[in-house]
Design a protein that fits this description.
It contains 4 helices and 2 strands; from the N terminus they run αααββα. The protein is mainly alpha-helical.
Length: 82
């Protein structure tokens, strides 16, 4: 929907506000951990995203309201070679 370049831009902007997550390993760990909304490791990333929106675990990135997991996914994508 957004295209690769726009997702990279959003990911870079998220990383500028979350410097502790500025490496692939930290982002993968944070994505897999979620915001604690998954029970016993069950559920998909989509479930986590829906739960984050419901719980208000969102961030504003360049005018977009994203769940924290969505922002982290964009950030991880931004760290991969184009």
């Amino acid at each position: 929907m957004l295209g690769a370049e726009r997702v990279r831009e959003l990911g870079k902007k998220y990383l500028s506000s979350a410097p502790g997550e500025n490496n692939p390993e930290a982002l993968r760990e944070a994505i897999s951990r979620g915001t604690g909304v998954r029970l016993l490791g069950r559920g998909s990333i989509d479930d986590t995203i829906r739960s984050e929106f419901a719980a208000g675990h969102t961030v504003l990135v360049d005018g977009w309201v994203l769940s924290v997991t969505e922002a982290r996914q964009a950030a991880l994508f931004s760290l991969t070679p184009a």
